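Help wanted!
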Amino acid sequence: MIAPLTNAEWEIIALSLKVTSAAVLMALPIAYGLALVLARRRFPGRFLLDALVHLPLVLPPVVTGYVLLILFGRNGPIGGFLERAFGISLTFQWTGAALAAAVMALPLMVRAMRLSIEAVDQRLVEAAHTLGASKWRAFATIILPLSLPGILAGVILGFARSIGEFGATITFVSNIPGETRTLPLAIYTSLQVPGTDVAVARLVVLAVIISLAALILSEWLVRRASGGRTHVL
Amino acid sequence: MSFDIMIRKSLGDCSVDVAFQSDTKLVAIVGQSGVGKTTLLNCIAGLLKPDQGRITIAGTTLFDSELQFDLSPNQRDCGYVFQDSRLFPHKTVEENLRYGASRNGGKGALTLDDAVSLLDIGSLLDRKPSSLSGGETRRVAIGRALLSNPKFLLLDEPLASLDSARAERILRTVERLRDELAIPMLYVSHDEAEVARLTDTAITLD
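Answered by r_m:
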């Protein structure tokens, strides 16, 4: 007999979804902007920007978390400014967990979106210009809709990366129940305590269910958006 | 003067050096493939920048290297029928036709209904470009260019890869456009018989 979810488990799921959604929403416009610039512009420093975007993918997540702590901590250059100017603090807050997840998800999102922007036929953009479309209109009516499958793929990858985020999160915002203890951190915490096999197993099953649901939903979305031409699975 | 054009452009292997003036409404550009006919059209549409030259069509200067004047493609009021048609794959035929229709306040020589009946594409309006045949695609591309209220038309091999019956149909349409619309047209082709039917003014590139 499987017992229904406890309040603590609901709280973990809700927090995980909140952190992950915020992370993906935060990263989405930035990732698309970066993908657009990297795919369609040639400028000095492009390689450097590309490398910088990819850094969280290749660095140990603990290092990324540490860098976030240095930059966004109370005494850090960005964190100190946010605190003084807006009274916003990210340390030990769920918003900080979202920032960590967003930074970790960013490279994957940029890669997926960039590929689909590069796949947009430049000849169609030219055709739009000859029909009187400004750069902005050509972007909104040609590039954006034709790269939609890549945006969705990026969101899915970002969601998957964010919901599994562990190293950068625990380093940057610690492991505070109800605030920064997302699903992976909760599993890790339970594993530290002897005799919690059932609790761990339940959380693991939840992680599997959420990930599978996200995958199936995204597959459906991508197929719909691309008229069946592309898919994730 | 319909056309007053002087263009010098090198692009890889292909280099174009052409100068002509004409008052004829339809001027043909002929020559073997690879001599730069499409390069010439791309320069006129503003998709390529000539190394040197001047482009004035129907009294409007689009480009002048001496004055460093270079109108961007979306401001040239050009109806360009590409050889590869370039219909937008994610839009229906009707959405493609309407894409440029708001240009110049939407006051063009043709309405959507006019273009649809002229080109006989009424049954295609709800379809996506991927489901069209070659001839249908070409007709929709011509319609899209016409409906963008252009001040001149560029037609790049509009009969290429069509069977003779469909080619004949497009050719008749071009003849009607020539006779019924008051806008200059440049017609690129490698077929001299085809050109002879449309105009006695042909510029040969070599």
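OP: Thanks! One thing I noticed: The first helix of chain B runs from residue 37 to 45.
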